[in-house]
């Protein structure tokens, strides 16, 4: 039996809007373990970690991924937290695969924004059963929260943008230009795509969004950090895909384009 908060109404809203907020899902124990994991990650980032500063402001925007196998608290979160069940239910998949985690920290007085984008253009993935679970360990007001464009997950693929420069991803090979034109630039007026929504979020809450839902965030001009663990999940209909740029994360394991995910150490099935 699934958790009581995973209702048919929630699933319908997720399918329609591409994003839902779920309140009071993660216990104080999971929040504490996640804080420890984030602290360890920031103290010892991977080769993919980066700290980006905006114009003015004393704070930085830190992000890093693919650390879940070396940080015990993240490993435990993947296999034992409510995240896998949430992802499986909302994607409608028979099995759920853990793709990767992403630690996202905006320090106090950080002016750096998160540009409008959707995740799946960065990933070497095609399919509809892709989702992220965005879980803050700090209170996030509407002035620092993540904003989403409702229904944008049904509008094709959009161009990916570098977080540091907010410029489109460069092609990895000029011969791939023809493939790149199938990715639409994000319009200057984001509401051309759809209605923008966002929520004040408390520790224990999470926001779940589809891999093709467009989202972005302001900086963090508050006096507290905005620390978030975002986990990425994929379902049965997802296959490995080629992109005309270097993907982020740039790992596919042994998968070739068109192949579905199989059980392995890099992309494990999680029972729930």
Summarize the structure.
The protein is an alpha+beta fold and 272 residues long. 18% of the residues lie in helices and 22% in strands.
Poorly predicted ranges (pLDDT <50, ≥5 residues)?
none
Backbone CA Rg: 17 Å
Distance between the termini: 10 Å
Largest sheet, spatial ordering of strands? 1-10-7-12-4-3-2
Number of strands: 13
Give the topology string: H per helix, E per strand. HEHEEHHEEEEEHEEEEE
Helix content: 10-25%
Number of helices: 5
Structural class of the helix and strand makeup?
alpha+beta
Characterize the largest beta sheet: strand count, sense, and whether it forms a barrel: 7 strands, antiparallel
Approximately what portion of the residues adopt beta-strand conformation? 15-25%
Principal-axis shape equals globular
On the 0 to 100 scale, the average pLDDT is: 96
Task: Tell me what you see in this structure.
- This protein is an alpha+beta fold and 272 residues long.
- Helices cover 18% and strands 22% of the residues.
- It contains five helices and 13 strands.
- It has helices at residues 8-17, 28-43, 72-80, 83-91, 177-180, and strands at 19-22, 50-52, 61-65, 97-106, 114-117, 125-126, 130-136, 147-149, 196-198, 206-210, 215-217, 226-234, 239-240.
- A seven-stranded antiparallel beta sheet has the order 1-10-7-12-4-3-2.
- Strand 2 (50-52) and strand 3 (61-65) form a beta hairpin.
- Helix 2 (28-43) runs antiparallel to helix 3 (72-80).
- It is globular.
- The N and C termini lie close together (10 Å).
């Amino acid at each position: 039996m699934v958790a009581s908060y995973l209702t048919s109404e929630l699933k319908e809203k997720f399918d329609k809007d591409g994003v839902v907020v779920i309140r009071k899902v993660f216990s104080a124990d999971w929040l504490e373990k996640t804080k420890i994991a984030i602290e360890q990650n920031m103290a010892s980032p991977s080769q993919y970690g980066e700290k980006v500063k905006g114009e003015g402001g004393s704070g930085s925007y830190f992000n890093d991924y693919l650390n879940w196998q070396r940080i015990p608290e993240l490993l435990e979160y993947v296999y034992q937290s409510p995240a896998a069940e949430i992802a499986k239910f909302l994607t409608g998949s028979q099995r759920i695969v853990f793709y990767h985690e992403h630690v996202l920290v905006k320090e106090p007085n950080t002016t750096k924004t998160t540009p409008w984008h959707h995740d799946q253009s960065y990933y070497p993935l095609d399919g509809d059963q892709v989702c992220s679970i965005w879980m803050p360990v700090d209170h996030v007001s509407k002035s620092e929260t993540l904003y989403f464009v409702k229904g944008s997950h049904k509008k094709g693929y959009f161009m990916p943008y570098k977080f540091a420069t907010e410029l489109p991803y460069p092609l990895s090979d000029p011969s791939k230009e023809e493939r790149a034109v199938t990715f639409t630039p994000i319009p200057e007026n984001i509401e051309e795509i759809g209605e923008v929504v966002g929520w004040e979020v408390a520790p224990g809450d999470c926001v779940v969004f589809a891999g093709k839902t467009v989202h972005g965030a302001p900086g963090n001009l508050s006096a507290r950090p905005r620390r978030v663990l975002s986990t990425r999940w994929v379902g049965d209909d997802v296959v490995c895909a080629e992109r005309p740029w270097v993907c982020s994360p740039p790992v596919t394991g042994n998968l070739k384009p068109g192949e579905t995910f199989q059980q392995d150490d890099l992309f494990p099935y999680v029972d729930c």
